[in-house]
Amino acid sequence: MSKFRLRYAPSPTGFLHIGNTRTALMNYVFAKHFDGDFIVRIEDTDLERNVDGAIESQFENLNWMGIIPDESFLKPGLAKYGKYMQSQKFDRYKQLALELVEKGDAYKCFCTSEELTADYEKQTEQGIVATQYNKKCLSLSAQELADNDKTNKPFSIRFKVPLKSWNLNDMVRGDVIFYGKDLGDFVILKTNGIPTYNFAVVVDDFDMEITHVIRGEEHISNTPRQMMIFDAFGWTYPRFAHLTLIVDSTGKKLSKRSGNNLFFIEQYKKQGYLPQAIFNYIALLGWSPGVEQEIFTTDELIKIFDEKRFSKSPSTFDMVKMTWINSQYMKALSDGDYLNFVKPFIDQEQFNLIDKSEEWINQVLLLFKKEIDFGVQINEKIGLFFDNFEFNEITKEQLVQFENRLGLINIFEDKIRQLEEWNIENIKNIIKNSGTEAECKGKDLFMPIRIYASKTEHGPALADCIFLIGKDKILENIDFVKNQ
């Protein structure tokens, strides 16, 4: 059996998002499971729509997620595989398109855009929904062809669709039958010499010896056109798998307009999601591991991959589930890795770290290791350790519910003032002894002390908070809250 070769072929008209990440990931995992090659090539023939920086973004984010190509224009394979950017293969496409003309499988079309538009409108007025080219240029005489060529009249090249059927044995959907009568003769080379998608992709897949094509279901209508081009050249089809849609919570195709969901991988990166968590979650969109386990390393996913477990139903992108998986990865980080990961997400315009020691910063951040789901969330947590944290009305209302709060806090404040050795164990003892003297326990003890000490009813372990806020600031906070 020949080596498996799979490809991800983005166009530089946009950036890496959930949908095309799933395509890249499935091709990558499939290839690696079978010790095959994963290729990234660039379909950049739509020159007017190409976006600056899109190619660089694709590679940067794929590499960040660990989806590393074995071959690309940055790392070409054997010379026989050709170029890895379609814009560098225009001569190859033109040569092969003219070959099909010579063989009688394609023909030159001299129809102008105005003529094509007029014919389209005529068919539409007649109630024809699936409009097709009227094949006007298929029946041109040799003299008409010669006259057009003599005057250098612009032409496209159209593929002559055989009136037969094609059976696609899809790895996801099983047998799907297409009929040539439903498909009009389509353009394979435009008047400007640029190939259309359905032609270029077949040439590229043949040149690169692609064995399997895994892509989204929106491409399934392209497949019969590609199969007939493979047939015209006598080339073998790759195996096809058309993955089901990824939908949002409303059942519509996931897009950048899908509610508040983050859509582009770069957005997740900036929010502080871990690449291995994103990889893990997206791998489960449209594919099942066959076990109840949900957290997998990349190596585990590659090892257990089974192409027979692609789903036949649309996959719902669940932001809550995605965030939960990320939180599990966050919790599993070592303390050192967690600190290295989360520090760059601190908003230093909001929180002044200049006069803070590295040890103090580390201790504060570690308090929230089990609480935050993604990196930037740290900014919602650490405010109580900085002067810019506000005492709000909700907290004030919480405090007044405790009738014995002033007696308790006076005892606590006095003990804090007298404390000489500032450490967590001594602070714990002060909290306990204050409760005994004030005859308070449970929430009646901890909540008033927390609010007076930190100006908020929320936070991690109370003694840790008090220790890190510092003695002077604790006394300042108590005085502030008393005067509200």
**Fraction in helix:** 40-55%
The CATH architecture category of the domain at 390-483 equals: Orthogonal Bundle
- Calculate Rg over CA atoms: 32 Å
Helical run tally: 19
- The biggest beta sheet, please? 3 strands, antiparallel
Structural class: mainly alpha
Strand content is 5-15%
Broad shape: elongated
Instruction: Indicate the multimeric state.
Output: single chain
CATH top level of the domain at 390-483 is Mainly Alpha
Order of helices and strands: EHEHHEHHEEEEHEHEEHHHEHHHHHHHHH
The CATH topology annotation of the domain at 390-483 reads as Arc Repressor Mutant, subunit A
Give the overall pLDDT as a whole number: 94
Query: Separation of termini?
Result: 79 Å
Got a strand count? Answer: 11
Motif ('HIGH' region): 10-20
Domain Aminoacyl-tRNA synthetase class I anticodon-binding: 343-478
Function: Catalyzes the attachment of glutamate to tRNA(Glu) in a two-step reaction: glutamate is first activated by ATP to form Glu-AMP and then transferred to the acceptor end of tRNA(Glu).
Motif ('KMSKS' region): 253-257
